[in-house]
Amino acid sequence: MMTKIPNTQHDVIVIGAGAAGLSAALVLARARADVLVIDAGEPRNAPAAHMHGFVSRDGMPPAEFLATGRREVSSYGGTIESSTVATIDRREDGGFDVALAGAAVHSARALLIATGLKDDLPEIPGVRERWGSLVHHCPYCHGREVSDQLIGVIGGLAREMSLKQAGLLRRYSDRVDFITNGIDLTTVERHRLEAFGVRIVDGAVSRLAGEADVQVDITLTDGQTVRCDAVFIAPVPLPTDDLLRSLGCAADPTTGLIAVDAAGQTSQPGIWAAGNVVTPSAQVITAAGAGSASAIAINGWLLQRDLDTASAGRPTT
Question: What CATH number is given to the structural domain containing 138?
Answer without folding.
Answer: 3.50.50.60
